[in-house]
Amino acid sequence: MKGIVSICCFFSLLVLALAEEEVEDVLSHILRDRSHIDETLRLASEENAAENYHAAIQKLRKIYHSAIKPMEQAYKYNELRAHEISDGEITSKPMVLFLGPWSVGKSSMINYLLGLKDSPYQLYTGAEPTTSEFTVIMHGEKTRSIEGIVMAADSSRSFSPLEKFGQSFLEKLIGIEMPHKLLERVTFVDTPGIIENRKQQERGYPFNDVCQWFIDRADLIFVTFDPTKLDVGLELEMLFRQLKGRESQIRIILNKADNLATQDLMRVYGALFWSLAPLINVTEPPRVYVSSFWPFDYAPDTSRELFKREEISLLEDLNQVIENRMENKIAFIRQHAIRVRIHALLVDRYVQTFKDKMSYFSDPDLVFKEIVDDPDKFFIFKSILAKTNVSKFDLPNREAYQDFFGVNPIGSFKSLSAQCSYSGGCLLDKIEKAITSELPGLLSSINPGKAPPGLSSCEATGCGDKPKNRYRKN
User: Fold this and answer.
1) Which of 193-197, 219-223, 381-385 comes out lowest in average pLDDT?
2) Which residues contact 126 (CB under 8 A, 6 or more apart)?
């Protein structure tokens, strides 16, 4: 009897083992091959490139702290534009932001790109709204999750400014660290899906303001859609309003495309453009990728080759952002330096005008109120344009300085000529040297094959030419 039981157990185990092998064989055929991801993103690149990148980052950080930040602090630039540049932001990796309605495949796409399928840290997915947190996926020596409160408290990261959105938001922020080759070069941010029948007040924190914070710092923005639900409501319209000015970073993804027949997919593609046209007012429409970004194979009888080419094209776009991360960071810091310099010149002009109009019997409050209320009467903005050849499109709004000087009395600022020392030199000279020489020199040092940028008057003063967008395909 015992022998019969043993034989039955043996055959049961054998059948179970064979069943498991069959399941693995079936899964190996169902799951999509991911070898092209590593190849297209060049994840097996040389370590020298990483070393050169870190060396250039340290030089950029030194230029910012020695030439730009002193001018920021002297003229309180961060109170005019609430975007303080921290060391964490300078040294941070390129950020890829995933936005869109709920259950369109944002989390599944991240799982696919990172190969997290069936791993303990794969992002949860489902047909219902599943992601209620802002999830930051970044590189780390070991795999672990980090609470949002801890992320915001760590000054070495670039997320400390998120504390201003309150503890309710920090409870909805989570970080995931893992040792992954792709995450050594880029950081992914997964966001809660947009639900049209839910107002942002119901989330317990300013959802749109948080989205704007990430949008302002993102190098690439994937706005994802499901072809079976293309309704555009007020919440999505608000999101595209926040994306205004960042059109060159936007990529539209029509995900789950293998769920439709080719003819239906063409109609959905046209309907998507028809829905988004009123929201994206630019001459050149954003790039649209049509594919199915998840680990499983494409549905049968669909345009497999087209979807594969679209996927490789998206990966090439992502790789271009990664490879140009240093150039984009230098361009961003230089653009920031130009704005700081213009702000300092304007404050200096306000100070000089105030001193010229003051007399022994004058009321300082009335004199300065007259200057702030009507700066054109005293040629404050026009004098900056005439002397420095700055584009009028780079000048801040006049109304912004009414609020700025309402908080910061004019007497708290020195003129630019007084911002000099025997050992440290003049703040204006240092920031001009950074704009015209040091930052372009750093750019040419990481691209030795290219000629250094010319130092025309526009390059020296920032007369309207914005840094060339290296994300846009020619």
Assistant:
1) 193-197
2) 103
How far apart are alpha carbons 162 and 213 in whole angstroms? 8
What average pLDDT does this structure show over 86-101? Answer: 89
Please write the tens of the pLDDT for every residue from 158-178.
888 899 899 999 999 999 999
Identify the CA nearest to 156 among candidates 92, 252, 249. 92
Helices 325-357, 439-446: crossing angle, 10 deg rounding: 170
Instruction: Extract the tokens encoding 194.
Output: 């947009």
Distance between CA atoms of residues 259 and 257, nearest Å? 5
Cβ neighbours around 174 below 10 Å, total: 18
Calculate the alpha carbon distances from 164 to 29, 79, 169, 209, 408 in Å.
Answer: 49, 15, 9, 10, 21
Is the whole model's pTM more than 0.90, yes or no? Answer: no
Please tell me the distance from the alpha carbon of residue 79 to that of residue 156, in angstroms, as a whole number.
23
CA–CA distance, 121 with 111 (Å, rounded to integer): 9
Check residue 131 and give its pLDDT: 62
Task: Return d(Cα 291, Cα 296) in angstroms, integer.
Answer: 12
SS3 assignment, position 187: strand
Which of the 8 DSSP states describes residue 31?
A: B
C-alpha atoms less than 13 angstroms from C-alpha of 266 in its C-beta half-sphere: 3
278 DSSP 8-state letter? T
Q: Yes or no: say if 453 and 444 are a contact pair by the CB < 8 Å rule.
A: yes
Cβ atoms of 307 and 292 within 8 Å: the answer is: yes
User: Quick one: CA torsion of 398, 401, 403, 406, rounded to 10 degrees?
Assistant: -140
C-alpha atoms less than 13 angstroms from C-alpha of 116 in its C-beta half-sphere? 24
Please give, one letter per residue, the 3-state secondary structure of 226-277.
ECCECCCCHHHHHHHHHCCCCHHHEEEEECCHHHCCHHHHHHHHHHHHHHHC
